[in-house]
Design brief:
Largest sheet of chain A: 4 strands, antiparallel
Number of domains of chain A: 2
Helix content of chain B: 55-70%
Largest interface: A-B, 35 and 53 residues
Order of helices and strands of chain B: HHHEHHHHEHHEEEEEEEH
Shape of chain B: elongated
Structural class of chain B: alpha+beta
Distance between the termini of chain B: 45 Å
Radius of gyration of chain B: 26 Å
Strand order of the largest sheet of chain A: 1-6-11-9
Number of helices of chain B: 10
Order of helices and strands of chain A: HEEEEEEEEHEEEEE
Oligomer: heterodimer
Number of domains of chain B: 2
Number of helices of chain A: 2
Strand order of the largest sheet of chain B: 3-4-9-5-6-7-8
Strand content of chain A: 25-35%
Helix content of chain A: 10-25%
Number of strands of chain B: 9
Chain lengths: 195, 383
């Protein structure tokens, strides 16, 4: 290759390199030819929890209900003393979604309460009381909490009402003779990220 | 080194130092005071070296060729304006204002080119002298533009290098060569046409700073090639090297690639490219990829579809995310977007009509990495 040709090739390469250098420099500083935003991939978090300040006890009739504790996603133990049919323990609370993912109810577990009687009429009392108990978890509008319900992200709230009701007896002869304990009341609502 | 050459080098170095101080310490030169500086330098060069009129035989032919080609480049520049638009010239065409603009610039050009010619002619045009002439005249051009830039900041200095130093160095390399081989008249011709048209013509092509810098760099390169091919000294070359098809094809391909790079990065046409600096669209678009944007969608929002990768502005940043929902109320668009990255959730902003830049039509892997790297380096330095 002649020196002249080498010089020409060198010159062309230099010119192209300078044009590319100008291009890269302007692209770096230009707002119009700008780099994709840096803050786009944001920190994500999952946070669905019970709002302890929202807890409301509304005992009806002559029921006496102790205030349960609320911790994270758990309402702690509580006791309710029913003195006569028609009494009910009503606990209102809120589920809050302060995370960045929309949440959906994936399962609702409301157990059948366990009734434990005492004395000579134990078995009959247990059966009679159990037949008159209803244990429900409902939304504020009265509809049952169901799978598929959604809570929006970033502050979405769901109001729920947990009610344990001791219904009226048609036949007063079926009223329990001795005190009856009701256990196995833990309700579980499971949330997962909505699609 | 000859004694005269030493004296000339010292003369040029002192002149350059004065101009460097003007650029970085205190800007004392304007369009009028620079003329005094130039006349002083010219007088000193005449005293040290004497003066010889240009006696080149074919100088009229060369002047004519330079005038024709320079005018042709200007016509092409204005032809570009058909695609990118025109703007009204910021200079008044009132006769006295025109005179006030043209006269100082013309005197600067006359004195600079006489000085250039005199130094080169009388020194025997050694490489050292030619290099110093290029440095001196580039610093002269920079001195006249320094008031537009904050050279004490990194960004200001960088902008001045790209938009003034590099294009002016290219011009001065060409003019130094012309002065050495053809005399001062072709240099006057080129410099007068390229400097004065903006004062005389009422409209100018709407060139952004990038296009201006690239074109002002390339035009002297092309001028030098054309004039040198026509009038330069013919060397004995291997007959196989002359006009080979291979070299023509390489020239054409190189020119097309350069034109594409310039057009896509100028952001003055329908299609533009930008480098991607975040991973929010991975794996579809990765950091360092360059994306090809069709900007016509910003005028035709009805062409947008769910699934398109949208380029849009939010506050002061440009983002590239996929459209997941389009809500139209009359002519008002509200577009919801989300990055393809599995860690992303739906964006918490709504893109409206004015925010849309365009739609991604292609991706070139990793070609934008130097830009991303430089940008991250600047951010790291707090620039």
């Amino acid at each position: 290759m002649t020196n002249r040709k080498k010089g020409l090739i060198g010159g062309v390469v230099l010119v192209i390199a300078i044009v590319i250098m100008i291009t890269i420099t302007y692209a770096t500083f230009s707002k119009t030819l700008s780099i994709n935003g840096v803050g786009v991939v944001r920190k994500q978090n999952w946070d669905v929890h019970l709002d302890d300040e929202s807890l409301q006890l509304t005992p009806s009739g002559s029921a006496v209900v102790t205030v349960p504790s609320v911790s994270g996603t758990t309402i702690g133990n509580y006791t309710a003393t029913f003195k006569s049919p028609g009494d009910a323990a009503v606990i209102g609370f809120e589920v809050k979604n302060t995370g960045t993912f929309k949440a959906v109810v994936s399962s609702v577990t409301i157990p059948t309460p366990i009734v434990t009687g005492s004395g000579s009429n134990k078995a009959q009392d247990e059966a009679n009381v159990l037949a008159k108990l209803t244990y429900t978890l409902k939304n504020e509008n009265g509809t049952p909490v169901a799978v598929g319900q959604e809570i929006p992200a970033n502050g979405g709230v769901q109001h729920m009402v947990l009610e344990l009701k001791y219904n009226n007896f048609d036949n007063p002869d079926l009223l329990p003779v001795n005190d009856v304990q009701i256990t196995n009341l833990a309700v579980t609502v499971t949330y997962q990220e909505a699609n | 080194m000859k004694e005269s050459e030493k004296k000339l080098l010292i003369f040029e170095i002192v002149g350059s130092l004065i101009l460097i101080l003007n650029i970085f310490v205190k800007n004392i030169f304007n369009d009028y005071t620079i003329i005094l500086f130039l006349i002083g330098m010219l007088a000193l060069s005449y005293y040290m070296l004497g003066f010889e009129v240009n006696k080149k035989v074919n100088r009229k032919e060369i002047i004519k060729a330079v005038a024709v080609y320079t005018t042709a480049f200007l016509i092409m520049l204005y032809g570009l304006g058909i695609f990118i638009g025109f703007v009204k010239s910021p200079y008044s065409t009132n006769f006295w204002v025109l005179l006030r603009n043209i006269v100082p610039v013309s005197i600067q050009i006359f004195t600079t080119e006489l000085l250039r010619y005199n130094i080169l002619k009388k020194s025997g045009s050694t490489k050292k002298i030619r290099t110093m002439v290029i440095v001196l005249t580039t610093l002269l051009d920079a001195s006249l533009a320094v008031h537009l830039y904050d050279v004490k900041t990194f960004m200001g200095a960088e902008e001045m290098i790209m938009s003034v130093i590099i294009p002016m160095a290219s011009k001065n390399i060409m003019l130094t060569k012309f002065s050495t081989e053809y005399g001062y008249e072709p240099c006057w011709t080129y410099a007068l046409i390229i400097s004065l048209y903006q004062y005389i013509l009422p409209i100018q092509p709407n060139l952004n700073i990038y296009l201006q810098s690239v074109l002002l760099f390339l035009i002297p390169v092309l001028m030098e090639t054309i004039i040198n091919n026509r009038f330069g000294k013919k060397e004995k070359v291997d007959i196989r090297d002359q006009n080979s098809l291979k070299s023509k094809v390489i020239t054409v391909i190189t020119s097309i690639i350069m034109a594409i790079i310039i057009i896509l990065n100028s952001n003055a046409f329908r299609f533009a490219t930008t480098a991607v600096g975040s991973g929010s669209m991975e794996p579809t678009i990765r950091v360092g990829d360059a994306i090809l944007i069709d900007k016509s969608y910003s005028e035709h929002l009805d062409k947008l579809k769910v699934g398109d990768i949208l380029v849009f502005r939010i506050d002061d940043s440009v983002y590239t995310h996929r459209i997941i929902d389009i809500d139209v109320h009359g002519i008002k668009y509200q577009i919801t977007t989300k990055g393809d990255n599995p860690n992303n959730s739906v964006d918490d902003w709504v893109v409206t009509n004015e925010d849309v830049v365009g739609v991604v039509k292609g991706r070139i892997p990793l070609i934008g990495y130097p830009t991303v790297w430089l940008n991250q380096l600047m951010r790291g330095r707090g620039i």
